[in-house]
C-alpha cells in the first residue's frame, strides 16, 4: 500500500515526542486543577487542617493523571452503553458523566484529601478537558507531523485487523454535498481565497496566495473539473436529493404541497413525508438507490438505500433496533475533550450569530429578516454539531473501506437564508467547510482503499427582499384579496424551510410534524397557500381534482388576474381545459404550456434557458397545485422575492438558485459531452451511478434499455461482486 510512513529511523524521535506531549498535558492539567482548587470553594485538594504545598501538588498531579486515564479508558465504554439515549441529551450527559469521572479520580487518590461538590466537579472536569484538549492541540500544531502520524496509526490499525481478508475491490467514492452552495458562489469563493482546498483541486491559485519575488507561484496541478448543472423548477434539497440518491423526483412540485387525495400537507423535511417520498421513489424506479450495497448515508433527507445511516431524516420517525439514524455519535462523544470542544464551539457560534445580527440591525442593513428566538441555536447546530458529526461519520466510513459514501453539509444553506448568500457571515462558513474538506482529503490518503472525492451541490440561493418586506402583505393575503376574502391586518409569517430545524428535532427524537392544521383554512372553500422559497402554491381543498383556469375564473373571477398582474409575481401556471395548461403573465400575457420553448418563452423570458421545460415537466405531476406562482425575478441584479422570511432563498425559478455545481475527479469520465448541459437531479443520479460502475461500484446493474443518458461511455451491466466484509466503523460501534 502506498503512503505508509518509514517507521525506521524516526521511531524513537516520535516516541519521545509523544511522551513529551503527554507529560506537558499532564503538567498543564495539574496546574489547572490547582488553580481551580484555589478559586472554587467546593473543590479542595487538602484536608481541612491544611497540608503542605508539596502534598497538595502531589494530590493534584495524581488526580489529573487519574482523570486523564479514566477519560481514555472508561469514557468510551460509558458512551457505548448510552448510545440509545437521544443524541443531544447525550451531549448534556457528557458534562455530568465527565464530572463523575473526576469524583472517581479523587476517590482513588491515595492521600484521600481531594473532594468536590458534584456540581463543582462538573465545572472542574469540563475546564480540565478543554484545557487538556487546547494544550494537546497547540503542541500538535507545533509538530507538523503529529496529526499525520495519528492518521497513520488509525489506518495501520485498520490494516492489521483486515489482515487475512480480501481487500476492497477498486476505489471507493465519497460524495460531499455542500447544501445551497451555487456554482457562482463556489467560483467566487475559490477566486477570493475562501476555499483554498477546492481551489487547489481545480488547479487555481486563489487571491492572496502569491508570494513576493520575481517569479509568481505556479498554480497547482488540477485534480478535479467543475461542471455546472441546472436544477428542476423545484430548486430545493427535497427534490434534488431525492432525484440524486433515488433516481427520480417525479411528483415533488415544491418543498411543501397539499395533496388532495390524502388531505395532507407534504413537507420534505418532515420524517413521515420524507419516508413516504422515498417509498414512492423506490416503487417507481424498482431500485433501492445510489448507495444500495456497502453504502453510507450521512446527514441526508433520504437514505439512498444505504445500510449505514446517521442523521438521515427519512428514518428518523422509526423506532427499534433497526433505527440507526443516530449512528455516528459514538465517534463524536467517545472523546470527552471533543464533546467539550464542540460545546464551546457551539456556544461561540451562538454568540457569533447574536453579534452578527445585532451589527446588521444597528447598521440598518437591507434586506434583513428577524434572526432572534431559537435561530442562533439552530444555526449553531447546523454549523457546528451536525458538521462535526457528519464529518466524523465520513472519516469512520473511509477507514472502514466502504464503497460509496454520500454526506450533506447544511451549514452554508442555513446561514445564507438569514444573512444572504453573498454575505460575510456566509463567507466565514465556507472557510470552515473548506477546512472540513481538507481533513477528509487527508484521511483519504491513508484509508484502506483509494477514494475519489466528488463535490456537488443540490441547488444555489438567490438573494433579494421578501415579498412581505417589499409589499407589506404575504402571498396568502394577496390570494385572499383576489378571492374577495377578508385580509387580516397582521400578516402571518410563513414557515422556514431550513433543513437544520428538522435535523435538530430528529436528534432530540421530537417528531418533525409541522402542524398540518396551521395550513388548513377555517372553511374548506378557502384556499390553502404554501410557500417554498420564491415558489408559491395555491390549492382549493374542497375540490378533489386540480382546478382548471375556467373553474377558477368561475369561482373567483379576479384571482388569476390579480396574481398575474402583481409586480411581485413573475408568472402563474394553471391547468386549462382548452390548452391543457397555460402560463399567465402581466398585461394579459398567456402561453399554452405545450407551446413554451426557449425561443418562444412568453412570460418566462427573464428566467433563462430551460425554464420552459422545467415548467412543462412540473405541470404533468399528479400533485401539482391548482395555481403555481413564481415570484418576480430581476435578471440584472439576480434578485427574487421570497414568499418566506428569507433574504437568501431557493425553491423556484430565477437566478443562482437554479445553478448548482458538480466537481469530479479527472480520473472519472466527463459527466456530459462538451456541448451539452447537465439538467435535473435525475440526470445527476445517472452520472453518479455511471461513475460508480467505472470504479466497479456496489450498484445493482441497470438493464441495457436503462443506459444512463447524459453520461459518457457505455453503461455496461456490471458483474455483481461480493460485498466486502463489513468492518466496524467507530461511528457505528
Automatic annotation (TrEMBL):
Pfam families per record: Phage_holin_4_2, Phosphodiest
Record region (Disordered): 203-226, 699-733
Cited InterPro entries: Alkaline_phosphatase_core_sf, Phage_holin_4_2, Phosphodiest/P_Trfase
Highest rank taxon of the organism: Bacteria
Ranges annotated as spanning the membrane: 20-40, 52-75, 81-108
Keywords: Membrane, Transmembrane, Transmembrane helix
Plastid recorded as keyword: no
Keyword Membrane: yes
Descriptive protein name: Alkaline phosphatase family protein
Amino acid at each position: 500500500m502506498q503512503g505508509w510512513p518509514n517507521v525506521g529511523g524516526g521511531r524513537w524521535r516520535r516516541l519521545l515526542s509523544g511522551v513529551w506531549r503527554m507529560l506537558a498535558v499532564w503538567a498543564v492539567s495539574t496546574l489547572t486543577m490547582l488553580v481551580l482548587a484555589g478559586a472554587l470553594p467546593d473543590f479542595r485538594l487538602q484536608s481541612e487542617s491544611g497540608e503542605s504545598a508539596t502534598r497538595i501538588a502531589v494530590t493534584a498531579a495524581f488526580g489529573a493523571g487519574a482523570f486523564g486515564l479514566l477519560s481514555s479508558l472508561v469514557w468510551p465504554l460509558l458512551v457505548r452503553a448510552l448510545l440509545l439515549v437521544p443524541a443531544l441529551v447525550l451531549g448534556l450527559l457528557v458534562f455530568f458523566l465527565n464530572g463523575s469521572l473526576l469524583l472517581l479520580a479523587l476517590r482513588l487518590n491515595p492521600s484521600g484529601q481531594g473532594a468536590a461538590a458534584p456540581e463543582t466537579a462538573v465545572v472542574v472536569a469540563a475546564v480540565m478537558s478543554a484545557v487538556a484538549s487546547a494544550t494537546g492541540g497547540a503542541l500538535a500544531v507545533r509538530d507538523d507531523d503529529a496529526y499525520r502520524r495519528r492518521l497513520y496509526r488509525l489506518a495501520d490499525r485498520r490494516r492489521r485487523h483486515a489482515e487475512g481478508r480480501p481487500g476492497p475491490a477498486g476505489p471507493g467514492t465519497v460524495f460531499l454535498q455542500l447544501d445551497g452552495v451555487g456554482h457562482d458562489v463556489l467560483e467566487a469563493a475559490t477566486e477570493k481565497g475562501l476555499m483554498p482546498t477546492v481551489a487547489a483541486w481545480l488547479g487555481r491559485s486563489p487571491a492572496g496566495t502569491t508570494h513576493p519575488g520575481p517569479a509568481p507561484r505556479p498554480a497547482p496541478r488540477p485534480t478535479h473539473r467543475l461542471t455546472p448543472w441546472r436544477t428542476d423548477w423545484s430548486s430545493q434539497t427535497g427534490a434534488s436529493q431525492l432525484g440524486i440518491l433515488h433516481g427520480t423526483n417525479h411528483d415533488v412540485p415544491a418543498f411543501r404541497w397539499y395533496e388532495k387525495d390524502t388531505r395532507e400537507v407534504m413537507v420534505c423535511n418532515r420524517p413521515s413525508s420524507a419516508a413516504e417520498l422515498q417509498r414512492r421513489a423506490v416503487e417507481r424506479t424498482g431500485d433501492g438507490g445510489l448507495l444500495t450495497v456497502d453504502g453510507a448515508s450521512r446527514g441526508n433527507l433520504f437514505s439512498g438505500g444505504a445500510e449505514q445511516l446517521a442523521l438521515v431524516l427519512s428514518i428518523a420517525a422509526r423506532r427499534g433496533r433497526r433505527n440507526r439514524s443516530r449512528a455516528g455519535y459514538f465517534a463524536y462523544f467517545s472523546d470527552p475533550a471533543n464533546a467539550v470542544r464542540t460545546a464551546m464551539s457551539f456556544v461561540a457560534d451562538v454568540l457569533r450569530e447574536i453579534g452578527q445580527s445585532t451589527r446588521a440591525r444597528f447598521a440598518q442593513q437591507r434586506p434583513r429578516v428577524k434572526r432572534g428566538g431559537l435561530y442562533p441555536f439552530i444555526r449553531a447546530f447546523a454549523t457546528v454539531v451536525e458538521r462535526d458529526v457528519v464529518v466524523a461519520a465520513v472519516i469512520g466510513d473511509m477507514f472502514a473501506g466502504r464503497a460509496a459514501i454520500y454526506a450533506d453539509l447544511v451549514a452554508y444553506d442555513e446561514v445564507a437564508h438569514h444573512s444572504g448568500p453573498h454575505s460575510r457571515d456566509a463567507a466565514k462558513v465556507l472557510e470552515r467547510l473548506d477546512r472540513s474538506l481538507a481533513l477528509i482529503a487527508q484521511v483519504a490518503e491513508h484509508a484502506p482503499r483509494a477514494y475519489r472525492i466528488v463535490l456537488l451541490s443540490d441547488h444555489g440561493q438567490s438573494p433579494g427582499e421578501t415579498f412581505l418586506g417589499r409589499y407589506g402583505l404575504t402571498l396568502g393575503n394577496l390570494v385572499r384579496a383576489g378571492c374577495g376574502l377578508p385580509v387580516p391586518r397582521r400578516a402571518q409569517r410563513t414557515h422556514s424551510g431550513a433543513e437544520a430545524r428538522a435535523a435538530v428535532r430528529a436528534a432530540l427524537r421530537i417528531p418533525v410534524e409541522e402542524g398540518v392544521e396551521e395550513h388548513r383554512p377555517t372553511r374548506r372553500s378557502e384556499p390553502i397557500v404554501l410557500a417554498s422559497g420564491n415558489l408559491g402554491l395555491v390549492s382549493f381543498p374542497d375540490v378533489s381534482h386540480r382546478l382548471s383556469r375556467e373553474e377558477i375564473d368561475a369561482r373567483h373571477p379576479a384571482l388569476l388576474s390579480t396574481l398575474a398582474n402583481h409586480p411581485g409575481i413573475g408568472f402563474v401556471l394553471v391547468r386549462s381545459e382548452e390548452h391543457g395548461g397555460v402560463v399567465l403573465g402581466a398585461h394579459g400575457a398567456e402561453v399554452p404550456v405545450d407551446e413554451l420553448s426557449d425561443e418562444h418563452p412568453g412570460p418566462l423570458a427573464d428566467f433563462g434557458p430551460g425554464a420552459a421545460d422545467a415548467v412543462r415537466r412540473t405541470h404533468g405531476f399528479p400533485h401539482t397545485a391548482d395555481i403555481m406562482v413564481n415570484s418576480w425575478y430581476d435578471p440584472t441584479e439576480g434578485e427574487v422575492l421570497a414568499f418566506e422570511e428569507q433574504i437568501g432563498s431557493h425553491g423556484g425559478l430565477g437566478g443562482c438558485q437554479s445553478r448548482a455545481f458538480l466537481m469530479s475527479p479527472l480520473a472519472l469520465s466527463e459527466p456530459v459531452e462538451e456541448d451539452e448541459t447537465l439538467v435535473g437531479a435525475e440526470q445527476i443520479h445517472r452520472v453518479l451511478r455511471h461513475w460508480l460502475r467505472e470504479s466497479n461500484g456496489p450498484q445493482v446493474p441497470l438493464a441495457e434499455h436503462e443506459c444512463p443518458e447524459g453520461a459518457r461511455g457505455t453503461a455496461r451491466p456490471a458483474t455483481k461482486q461480493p460485498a466486502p466484509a463489513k468492518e466496524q466503523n467507530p461511528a457505528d460501534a
